[in-house]
């Protein structure tokens, strides 16, 4: 688990979320009535934008993550919003973790990944993310992402 930083324990604003999750046997707070995005992560509205519920919980409890850091699940349950199961890591480490866990089943013979329709939908949905971040996530060139966002490539999706 590289790239993790230790966070301080601060009392949790449980009330704000208590109607929106069930606690399972692992102690995970499982989101139950949130919009689930294409990648399986629950999202909520925050300042008129959609935000990963896990990040929202993090911000609510600990404040904005430092630049370049992302909120990660230590319990590997994407629906979980238990602050104790969340940690910060770098975007790179997050991708590394996913690759290690075999989630990024992408990458062809030459190491250049091909995108599926599902990926393209994800990219279009996350068009507010930067081209380079999405490119890194999918193992493609930033120009590929740009063409998708502009509707030049994959315009039928
Ligand atoms: Zn959990």
How would you characterize the overall build of this protein?
- The chain is globular and about 45 Å long.
- The chain is built from five helices and seven strands; from the N terminus they run βββββαββαααα.
- Strands 3-4-5 form a three-stranded antiparallel β-sheet. Strands 1-2 form a two-stranded antiparallel sheet. Strands 6-7 form a two-stranded antiparallel sheet.
- The chain starts with 20 loop residues before the first strand and ends in an 8-residue tail after the last helix.
- It is an alpha+beta fold and 157 residues long.
- A hairpin with a 2-residue loop joins strand 4 (42-46) and strand 5.
- It has helices at residues 53-62, 91-100, 117-125, 131-138, 142-149, and strands spanning 21-23, 29-31, 35-36, 42-46, 49-52, 69-73, 86-90.
- Zinc ion (ZN) binds next to loops.
What would the keywords be for this entry?
single chain, 157 residues, alpha+beta, Homing Intron 3 (I-Ppo) Encoded Endonuclease, Chain A, 2 domains, three-stranded antiparallel β-sheet, 5 helices, 7 strands, disordered N terminus, binds zinc ion
Nutshell version of this structure?
The chain contains five helices and seven strands. The protein is of the alpha+beta class and 157 residues long.
Using only C-alpha atoms, the radius of gyration works out to 16 Å
Shape: globular
What is bound: which ligands?
zinc ion
Strand line-up across the major sheet: 3-4-5
- What is the helical fraction, as a range of percent? 25-40%
Q: Supply the CATH architecture of the largest domain.
A: Alpha-Beta Complex
Residue-averaged pLDDT = 75
Head-to-tail CA distance between termini: 36 Å
């Amino acid at each position: 688990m590289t790239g993790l930083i230790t966070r301080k324990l601060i009392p949790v604003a449980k009330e704000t979320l208590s109607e929106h999750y069930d606690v399972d046997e692992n102690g995970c707070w499982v989101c139950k009535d949130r919009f689930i995005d294409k990648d399986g992560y629950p999202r909520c509205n925050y300042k008129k934008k959609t935000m990963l519920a896990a990040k929202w919980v993090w911000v609510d409890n600990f404040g904005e993550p430092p630049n370049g850091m992302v909120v990660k699940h230590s319990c590997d349950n994407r629906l979980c919003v238990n602050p104790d199961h969340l940690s910060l890591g770098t975007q790179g480490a997050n991708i590394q973790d996913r690759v290690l866990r075999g989630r990024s089943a992408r990458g062809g013979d030459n190491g250049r990944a091909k995108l599926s329709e599902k990926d393209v939908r994800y990219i279009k949905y996350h068009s507010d993310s930067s081209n380079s971040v999405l490119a890194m996530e999918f193992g493609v060139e930033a120009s590929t992402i740009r063409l998708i966002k502009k509707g030049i490539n994959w315009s039928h999706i």
